[in-house]
Amino acid sequence: MCYYNGQKVTRSEFIQLKQLEKAVRNYDFLNVEVHNGFNYPLCAIAVATDDKRDFELIQAQWGYVPGKMGTDEAIAFRRKLTTLNFKGENLFVSESGKPSMWRNAARENRCLVFSTGIIESQHIPKLGKKGQELKATTKYPHLVGLKGHEYFWMPGLYSDWVNQDTGEVTRTFAIGITQANELMKQVHNSKLRMPCILPDNLAWEWLMGDLTDDRITEIAMTQIPSRMLEECTIGAEYRLDGIINKQQYDELPRIKQESIDSEILDFDHWPKEI
Amino acid sequence: MMRPIEPPFDLFIESKMVRVVEYVIGAKRVFRVDYNDSKKPLTITVAIGPNNKKFWTSIPEGRQAEAVQIGRLIADHIRDKQI
After folding, report:
1. What integer pLDDT is reported at residue B2 of this predicted model?
2. Minimal Cα distance from B53: which residue of A?
3. Nearest CA to A82 among A64, A101, A59?
4. Which chain B residue is nearest to residue A50, measuring alpha carbons?
5. Is B4 inside a domain boundary?
6. Does residue A79 belong to any structural domain of this protein?
7. Is A4 inside any structural domain?
8. Is residue B3 part of a domain?
9. Which domain of life does this protein belong to (chain B) (predicted)?
């Protein structure tokens, strides 16, 4: 018999608690309200256990780096390719028709990325002296969440980056993005893309399933219907301070409801009754 | 199906509000308690003693009394929501 915190525990429980200590010590992503991808922060991702019967929540660095690279090489790689996200439709074949850099991870290293909300900016053209629209835009950040849910899951791919300069191994990941729904077309109007948000059954399948390439692509392209999302505008301080404050912008046109009401999505895999 | 993680919630402890966030690490439910001041956040979980008797404990060791006090409140909060 062993003791933990003055209480009697079995040897196996003692070992489990000691392992937990190590994991908790490494969890410095806790209590962070906003993760800005371009700072390559540590975030919470879920990976399947070896027997694929359960999952564990671990921390990983947002910004996918494949295989072995030195520090400078990894920085250059991320600058060139911006591997914060992957496109669901390009998991196996890239836009130029070549084999995609994501294909092996899509088959072997799928994970789920935990989030309580995403921030995307709406770009509104600035006006010139004569009232004409300029190329320059003002960015209005929106916080988008899932109605009635404190958190949601997005499909991710991970890679253990071996830093050839230091020998350090860092788990890195990217988030799946898909075609924007009608709400996100208005919010993220510069790219017309949105993160893929998965219902529980597809999140489980993405993580645990023995899937064909077609099925992997199908899940990764899932579009959440606009009616399930809620959004509000927030202050620009989220970017530097990491704090979210709701903020109204009187000059910003309201989100148009008509297109949302008549929305038809190509990849809506969400249960209809929700 | 995935068991839903408890959404973050607030508790009053000795007339102060603390923030509680649940995580799953391995197969364990872990709760991080943030005091919103200079006091170090507390991480607690339910451990299993002899005869399968469950008890709250701090991770790492050293804050057992706090773990028991706050653990009881967390359990009450979750139980109240289920009724």
Report:
1. 41
2. A9
3. A64
4. B26
5. no
6. yes
7. no
8. no
9. Bacteria
Task: Name the strand (E) or helix (H) holding B65.
Answer: helix B64-82
Kindly state the tokens that stand for B2.
Answer: 């995935």
Handedness of CA A82, A86, A90, A92 (dihedral sign): positive
Q: Do B34 and A31 touch (CB under 8 A)?
A: yes
Do the chains contact at B25 and A57, CB–CB below 8 Å?
Answer: yes
User: The complex's ipTM?
Assistant: 0.81
Domain of residue A105 covers 36-261
Location of structure tokens 């921030």: A119
Stretch A144-170: mean pLDDT: 88
Has residue A32 got a pLDDT over 60? no
For chain B, the domain total comes to: 1
Whether residue B70 lies inside any domain: the answer is yes
- Residue B40: inside a domain: yes
Q: Are strands B42-48 and A169-179 parallel, antiparallel or unpaired?
A: unpaired
Contacts of B70 in chain A (CB under 8 A): none
Residue contact B60–A57, C-beta within 8 A: no
In a domain, A14, yes or no: no
Mean pLDDT of B20-28: 76
* Candidate from B7, B43, B57 with C-beta closest to A7: B57
Domain containing residue A67: CATH number: 3.90.1680.10
Q: Find chain B residues with C-beta within 8 A of A30's C-beta.
A: 21, 23, 32, 41
How distant is the Cα of A5 from the closest Cα of chain B, in angstroms?
5
pLDDT digit string, tens, across residues B51-66: 888 999 998 888 999 9
Which residue segment(s) compose the domain that B13 sits in?
9-82
Residue A38 has what pLDDT? 60
Q: Are B58 and B64 in contact (CB under 8 A)?
A: yes
In our burial notation (b when 16+ CB lie closer than 10 A, e otherwise), range A41-58 reads bbbbbbbbeeeeeebbbb
CB contact under 8 A, B43 and A24: yes
CA distance A191 to chain B (A): 31
The token pair that represents A73 in the structure block: 């090489």
Residue A179 in any domain: the answer is yes
